[in-house]
């Protein structure tokens, strides 16, 4: 295959469309794809370096089985599939299928595999699961569920006032064309940006109002903002009367707040805070984005609740530039109430247990402990709090199977490692479809054949599910025949087969892959599961799907298959927001009693959680220009910040005796690590930050092991978490920082790596980057 081909960047949830020139299996040249309906040619600096993912020397090339001495041997796929299926069946028979825990299911760019592993797990009777969303979004989801039953997204491209709470979109992106949109807001005197962040981030520098809160003090700041709205009559009373219930109790709680006192406690000048509240209250539209700065800090769930007050009290809903409910191609969370984990009784929200309790749910003699774990496209041994405890727990499992493209920290602990084809070698897609009024879905076609020895996940899961023997293959023959006849025939046969054998319903994606899959165009068999989803989408949002130009589910499925750059699958009217509220009365239910109690308790709660022993707040895992979770392992992909510097304030540097480029030791309750120091006037005194995605092992071509930067979760503790959602407080780790005693290490010179960057990189300036 040659020439420019459409695909997408896989480094954050935006999944910007790119076009790629492939040469010798490398992503030789990369540009933004102007035909992508959401990104329209935009990329950030990171997309151009994706070949460091594709051509990573750590790529797995054969299934691996661990020997008794801890080393691995290569085995063939047949052996791997039969042994793994057999081992899981034994665990299910001995202890029950619910003792098998599933972690992952997709990173920033790949969610198709997770659609199929679900069938394998269901067939085994496994239902407990977790992934990174339970390290960030489950608290917000719990709040969303009670308020309106769905996820919301701000329409920043048109919002008069954009509010970013613990969110640095200049670096972390997360909504379409983020830097273009931020520049437009900054340039337009009629619009405003409010940033709530202890750090003067690149986004904060562009803001009209930077509320530089003390770390962890957001609850007081947000409560005061909402209080000003209530106390100074800035609410949209007509909207509240028509569309919101439970307002009175909320209003009463906010009316009591001493704004000046709360402003002081959160470290923001009362006048600035009031001015920001008035800007919100006077705007025609307000959109709010909360992210890790609050989701991974104390009072996280309360903060999720409070920041939603800003747009609900001002009625910034169901109108251009406001906050919106939106369609989904496939939901990221399961519906239903809050469950409990078997050992610690931790909350299971949206079907996900907190990552922070996983080690405790394994390392115990409790009869209901997890015995086996399946990890797909995730690196929990590195990304979960308290890596040491997680590593020990994974080591105690009777069976650990990892599916990944690379030999990760987690894979090294596994009994079996299965090598997946990369995201550019198979059909892929994500379900990060979160926009309104127009929502898009992008099925990426393979750019090349899978690397020899690897398989796409849909094929891996089909082989494993087949090996379980839960479906009689002959039963699928009528469906195979119908699929060859046509889509309509297949649809009819499919529902007939389901009615006749409800067991097929348990393994639907598998059935679709086995029957419809072979009839799909070259290399797209893995898209078969989307047929069912396309029908679901068309029946859930019939008008919006038709407005987007798709007559029905089959038409939508065909459009998804044939469009190389992505399709718009729903086009909503603003009024549709009301219909997307899940509550039977169609109203937002503002009162959440537990959280109102917490709101009242703020008056008597100290904001600081540091101690004399650990006086500095460490943000463990900041997004920077060259971080991308654990997706790219080769440190050469970074054009700068190779060591992942520890950023400290000018004041702290002076007091602690730290200097730019020097080394510091960071000690927390969980552990200690050494980092290179960067003294930064963007940091507040008492606050320091380390980037995410560092401290990964990298074995270079010449066999030397490299592990630049700090693996942040060597410093985090699993008990340090939100009481409602169990989400970690990674952004708020009390720490002690001291100059390292030994001489600063010389940064290793890396001529070879620079050459690799050149080969993988240049494609002109990034489109859309200013
Ligand atoms: N470059 C890059 N982009 C990414 C990623 C990446 O790895 N690299 N990862 C993607 C993923 S998985 C995610 S979840 C998103 C996350 O995106 P963000 O949440 O924007 O990323 P962070 O930098 O982790 O945290 C955001 C901000 O929180 C601030 N913060 C720290 N403590 C506090 C506090 O107490 N209060 C407040 N208000 N703010 C605080 C930090 O200073 C930081 O600016 O980014 C996505 N985009
Ligand atoms: N201390 C601290 N910890 C954090 C955070 C923090 O800010 N601070 N952030 C948290 C957040 S928000 C997130 S999202 C998580 C992210 O942490 P994880 O959920 O562990 O995900 P990633 O780091 O993105 O790892 C993705 C894995 O997928 C693999 N992969 C890539 N492509 C494919 C493929 O096609 N198939 C398969 N099977 N595998 C593939 C990569 O090799 C990599 O191992 O980290 C969390 N942990
Ligand atoms: S914003 Fe940047 S990292 Fe995110 S998908 Fe787009 S190009 Fe990739
Ligand atoms: Mo994330």
UniProtKB/TrEMBL annotation:
GO molecular function terms attached to this record: 4 iron, 4 sulfur cluster binding; metal ion binding; molybdopterin cofactor binding; oxidoreductase activity
Xref: Gene3D superfamilies: 2.40.40.20, 3.40.50.740, ADC-like domains, Dimethylsulfoxide Reductase, domain 2
InterPro entries assigned to the protein according to its UniProt record, in alphabetical order: Asp_de-COase-like_dom_sf (IPR009010), MoPterin_dinucl-bd_dom (IPR006657), Mopterin_OxRdtase (IPR006656), Mopterin_OxRdtase_4Fe-4S_dom (IPR006963), Prok_molybdopt-oxidoreductase (IPR050123)
Pfam families according to UniProt: Molybdop_Fe4S4, Molybdopterin, Molydop_binding
Domain (4Fe-4S Mo/W bis-MGD-type): residue spans on this chain: 2-58
Coiled-coil stretches: none
A Gene Ontology cellular-component term: membrane
Region (Disordered): 740-770
Top-level taxon of origin: Bacteria
Entry keywords, A to Z: 4Fe-4S, Iron, Iron-sulfur, Metal-binding, Oxidoreductase
Alphabetized PANTHER family for the sequence: NADPH-FE(3+) OXIDOREDUCTASE SUBUNIT ALPHA, RESPIRATORY NITRATE REDUCTASE
Official protein name in the record: Oxidoreductase
């Amino acid at each position: 295959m040659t020439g420019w081909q459409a695909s997408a960047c896989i480094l954050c949830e935006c999944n910007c469309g790119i076009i790629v020139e492939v040469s010798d299996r490398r992503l030789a040249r990369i540009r933004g794809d102007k035909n992508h309906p959401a990104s329209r040619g935009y990329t950030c600096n990171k997309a151009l370096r994706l070949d460091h993912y594709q051509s990573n020397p750590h790529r797995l090339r054969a299934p691996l089985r661990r020997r008794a001495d801890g080393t691995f041997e290569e085995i063939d796929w047949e052996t791997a599939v039969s042994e793994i299926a057999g081992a899981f069946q034994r665990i299910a028979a001995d202890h029950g299928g619910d003792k098998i825990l599933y972690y992952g299911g997709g990173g920033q760019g790949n969610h198709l595999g997770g659609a199929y592993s679900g069938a394998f797990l269901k067939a085994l009777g496994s239902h407990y699961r977790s992934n990174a969303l339970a390290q960030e979004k489950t608290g917000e989801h719990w709040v969303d569920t009670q308020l309106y039953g769905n996820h919301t997204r701000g329409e920043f491209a048109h919002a008069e006032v954009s509010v970013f709470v613990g969110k640095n979109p200049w670096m972390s992106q997360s909504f379409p064309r983020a830097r273009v949109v931020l520049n437009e807001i900054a340039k337009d005197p009629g619009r405003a940006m409010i940033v709530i962040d202890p750090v003067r981030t690149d986004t904060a520098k562009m803001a009209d109002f930077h509320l530089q809160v003390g770390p962890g003090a957001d609850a007081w700041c947000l409560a005061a903002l909402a209080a000003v709205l209530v106390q100074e009559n800035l609410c949209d009373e007509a909207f509240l009367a028509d569309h919101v219930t439970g307002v009175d109790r909320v209003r009463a709680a906010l009316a009591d707040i001493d704004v000046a006192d709360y402003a002081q406690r959160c470290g923001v000048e009362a006048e600035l805070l009031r001015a920001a509240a008035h800007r919100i209250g006077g705007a025609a539209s307000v959109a709010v984005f909360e992210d890790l700065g609050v989701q991974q800090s104390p009072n996280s769930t309360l903060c999720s609740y409070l920041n939603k007050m800003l747009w609900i009290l001002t009625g910034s809903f169901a109108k251009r530039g406001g906050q919106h409910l939106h369609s989904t191609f496939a939901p990221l969370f399961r519906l239903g109430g809050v469950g409990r984990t078997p050992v610690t009784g931790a909350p299971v929200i949206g079907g996900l247990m907190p990552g922070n309790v996983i080690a405790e749910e394994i390392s115990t003699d409790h009869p209901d402990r997890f015995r086996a774990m399946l990890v797909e496209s995730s690196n929990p041994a590195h990304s979960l709090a308290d890596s040491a405890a997680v590593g020990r727990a994974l080591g105690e499992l009777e069976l650990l199977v990892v599916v990944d493209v690379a030999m990760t920290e987690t894979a090294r602990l596994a009994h079996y490692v299965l090598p997946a084809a990369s995201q550019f070698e198979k059909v892929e897609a994500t379900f990060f479809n979160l926009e309104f009024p127009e929502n898009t879905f992008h099925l990426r076609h393979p750019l090349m054949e899978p690397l020899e020895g690897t398989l796409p996940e849909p094929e891996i899961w089909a082989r494993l599910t087949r090996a379980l023997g839960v479906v009689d293959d002959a039963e699928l023959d009528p469906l195979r025949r119908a699929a060859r006849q046509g889509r309509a025939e297949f649809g009819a046969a499919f529902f007939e087969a389901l009615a006749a054998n409800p067991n097929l319903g348990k393994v639907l994606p598998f059935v679709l892959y086995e029957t419809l899959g072979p009839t799909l165009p070259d290399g797209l068999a893995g898209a078969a599961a989307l047929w069912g989803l396309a029908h679901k989408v068309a029946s859930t949002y019939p008008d919006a799907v038709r407005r987007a130009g798709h007559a029905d589910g089959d038409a939508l499925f065909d459009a998804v298959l044939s469009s190389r750059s992505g399709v718009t699958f729903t086009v909503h009217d603003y009024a549709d927001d009301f219909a997307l509220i899940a509550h039977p009365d169609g109203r937002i239910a503002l009162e959440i009693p537990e959280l109102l109690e917490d709101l009242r308790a703020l008056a008597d709660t100290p904001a600081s959680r540091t101690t004399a022993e650990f006086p500095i707040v460490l943000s463990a895992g900041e997004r920077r220009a060259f971080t991308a979770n654990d997706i790219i392992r080769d440190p050469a992909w970074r054009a700068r910040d190779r060591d992942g510097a520890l950023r400290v304030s000018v004041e702290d540097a002076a007091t602690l005796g730290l200097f730019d480029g020097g080394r510091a030791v960071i000690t927390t309750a969980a552990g200690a690590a050494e980092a290179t120091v960067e003294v930064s006037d963007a940091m507040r005194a008492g606050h320091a930050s380390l980037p995410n995605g560092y401290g990964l092992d990298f074995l270079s071509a010449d066999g030397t092991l490299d592990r630049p930067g700090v693996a942040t979760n060597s410093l985090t503790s699993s008990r340090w978490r939100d009481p409602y959602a169990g989400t970690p407080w990674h952004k708020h780790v009390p720490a002690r920082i001291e100059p390292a005693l030994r001489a600063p290490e010389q940064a290793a010179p890396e001529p070879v790596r620079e050459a690799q960057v050149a080969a993988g990189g240049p494609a002109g300036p990034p489109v859309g980057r200013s």
